[in-house]
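name: query_chain
kind: protein
chains: 1
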Amino acid sequence: MNVSDSFHPKSTTLCISSLDKRTETIDNVANLRTLKLMRAALSGVPIMTMSWVSTCLERKEIPSLEFNHIVHTLRSKNDELMIVKDSMDSPSARFGVVRLGSKSHNSKKTKNFMDKHLVLMCGQFKSPGYPKKVDIQLLLKESGAVVSSSPSDFIKAMKNEIKKQQPNHFGNPGIAFIILCDDSSSDSTSGIPKEMKTVLESAIADGDKLSFIIVTSYWLFDCISCGAILSCDKYEPLSPLGKTLWRKSMNE
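structure:
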């Protein structure tokens, strides 16, 4: 077995993670939600536990898989997502890794988690401790999303979609438009141009013609944890303009 510090979707066959021992759970929860583990979950690469490693060493062979050998869940900072839900329609991070793995192996396309999603990243993404822009771009790409090269291209795509005059909601054919914000608390550093405000407000007013949300980057991480597209209600941007557009997208 070759060991690498880097993750490569086409060559990495498994990842190894320690487990979160803070709470008793019905599933195996990874101790940390790292970039490598999120990429593994998106690619359908198995995430094994240290128990699996110990069993391999004890038996000196690759053992048959047992429940405690596989990581099922990537922890979310949103405690509500860590609650076990009775309904499959309710978003939950519980068994999210398994959910994503099932989608990957049951589809010829493995990078379709965010298919038909156009994303504009707004902000500087330079605050200490905040996720790096290059890492977020990588996750978006491996999720199947298209990252817009500029606000002008994003606006042009939105205007073209509005002209179609067709209903366009998550889960239906069409493009979903997402603005992913950093932790900027002022409009001057938020990266949302004035023209964007005008177009977005018009689009939100005609909400049945466009699928649009504006969220912080942690929305993406929780979508990966849950293996599903989440609503924007828990991911309000920090800038005044971002907050305004977020409230409008929530129909407040």
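note: The CA atoms of residues 14 and 45 lie 5 Å apart.
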